[in-house]
Amino acid sequence: MSDAPSLPEGYEFSAETDRVDVERVHGWLSTDAYWATGRPREQHERAMAGSLNFGVYDTATGEQVAYARVVTDQALFAWLADVYVDPSVRGKGVGTAMVGAIREHLRPCGIRRVLLATHDAHGVYRKLGFAPLEHPDQWMALYYESPA
Description:
The chain has 148 residues and is an alpha+beta fold. The protein has helices at residues 22-32, 41-49, 94-106, 122-126; strands at residues 11-14, 52-58, 64-72, 77-85, 113-115. It has a single domain, classed as Aminopeptidase (3-Layer(aba) Sandwich). Helices cover 26% and strands 22% of the residues.
C-alpha cells in the first residue's frame, strides 16, 4: 500500500521516459531553475539518458506540468535531481505528490538512501520523509572547474 500523497484531480504521474517533453523540460531547467540555468540541451539529454525520468501530466491536454529525475543503481543509492513544477500549477500539491510517487516507485528496489540538494524547499521534502544528513562531516564532494 502506498502512502504517497495523491495528485490533484486532473493530473497523472508517469515513469515513462518516452513520455517526457524533453524540449519543455530543458526550457524550464535552463531558463528558470537556479541549479541548471544555462544548461546545454545536449548535456541535459545525457543526464536524462543516465537517469530514471518522471513526469506529471494534465489528463485533459496531455501537457507535461512537472518533471524530476533520479540517478540510481536501483539497488543501494539514489539521487533525486531536477525537480521542477511549472509555475502555472505550483501550490496545488503537484510537486509533493510527484516526489511521493517517485519515493514509492523506488521503494521496491531496496534502496537505503535517497539524497537531494535544495536551496529553498526543505519543508516540502521534510513532509515526504527527507531529513538533514545524519553525519554531514562524513560526506565529501569532488568539484571540477567549469569547462571553458
